[in-house]
Amino acid sequence: MTYEQLLVLHAIVSEGTFRGAAERLHKSQSAVSHMLKKLEDDIGFLLLSREAYRPKLTAKGEVFYRQATRALEQMQQLRTTARNLNAKHEASVSLAVTATYPLTPVLNVISQVKNNIRQQTSIFPGNHGRPTGAVTGTTGGYHHRDDGRGAGRSGRSHSVCQHHHYAGRAS
Amino acid sequence: MTYEQLLVLHAIVSEGTFRGAAERLHKSQSAVSHMLKKLEDDIGFLLLSREAYRPKLTAKGEVFYRQATRALEQMQQLRTTARNLNAKHEASVSLAVTATYPLTPVLNVISQVKNNIRQQTSIFPGNHGRPTGAVTGTTGGYHHRDDGRGAGRSGRSHSVCQHHHYAGRAS
DNA sequence: AACAATTACGTCTCGCGTAAGCATG
DNA sequence: CATGCTTACGCGAGACGTAATTGTT
What we know:
The structure is a homodimer. By secondary structure, chain A is mostly helical.
C-alpha cells in the first residue's frame, strides 16, 4: 500500500472516472487502472465496482476511502511542513539584517506576511513530483496538455518522469 | 516523497542507526542510505546529521519527523481498517442470523460492542470523526452486498520479503 | 580492529505508455 | 458508435544488493 496508490484512488473518486483521474495526475488511464488494481490486490477487496460503467465506491471502498483521505491529508500537511522548513532559513536571515533598523514598523509587516503564508497553504491537489504547472484548486475543469517544465530553484531536477509520449515503439 | 521513505526515516530514528533500520526493514544498509538521501533530496534539507558517527536528527529533521509520525500513524491505521474490512463479512452475517430472534436485548449488546470499538480505536491520539468503519451508527445501517471477491485474505502475504540475497553477481 | 555510513557499479523489478480488446449507454 | 476500463507487451528509470572506501570508537 503506497501513498501514490492512495493518490490515484482519491483522484478517481473525486473525478468520477479513471480517465479524468489520469488527466489530473498527468498519467495514462492504463497507469491509473494498474495502480488501482494493485491497491485492491494489496488490501484484498475491490474498492470500486466497475460493473456500472461509471466506477462507484463499494461499501468497503467507502469506508476505506474515508480513512485514506485522512492519511492523504497528513501527507499533504507533511509536504507543507517541509516547504515551510525550507523557507525558514532565509526568513531568519532577512530578519537578522532587519534587526539593525528600527523594528517597530517592520514587526507589523512581519505579522501580515505571516498571515499571508498561513492562508497560502494550498489545498489538496499537490502534484507528486515537484511544483508542476497544474493549477491549484479542486474544480476539476482544467485539461492540461503540457506540464510546464519549471526548472526548480536549485539544480536538482532529479529526473522526474516527464510527460508520457514514449518516443519509439517496437512491434 | 513516498510512504516508504517515511518508513525508512522512522526506522532509522527509532533504531538509532542505519544498520539497525536496514535490519528491521529487511533491506541492506545501502538501500536505507539511498532512500533517506532521496527523501532529503526531495524535501530539500538534511534530516540527520551524519557528522556524529551516530545519526542524529537535525533541528528541521526533528520537526519533520514529528509530522511524519502522524502521517505514518494514519497509514498504519488505514492498513488496519483494510484488514478489518476484510473480516467484516462474517460479522454482518451473524447479525443477520440473530435477527430472527427477539432483538431487544441484542441491540443493547450491539451498542456496547460499538462502544468497545470506539475505545479500541483511540490507541492513536487524535482520532476524530468516524469510528474505524465497523458497525455503522444505526441498525438500519447497511446491508453489504457482493462487493467482494469472496476469495478471502488467505492468499495475500505480499510482503514476505525475508532477506533477499541476490542470486547472481557479475563483476 | 571492528563498526558504521557513503558510493560506484551492476542487475532486476515494476511503473507506465501504447495499442488493442471488451463492455456499456 | 462513442466512451471508458482492461489487458498484452515492452521499455526504461529507479530500487537495491555487493563491495570497496573513509571515518569513528
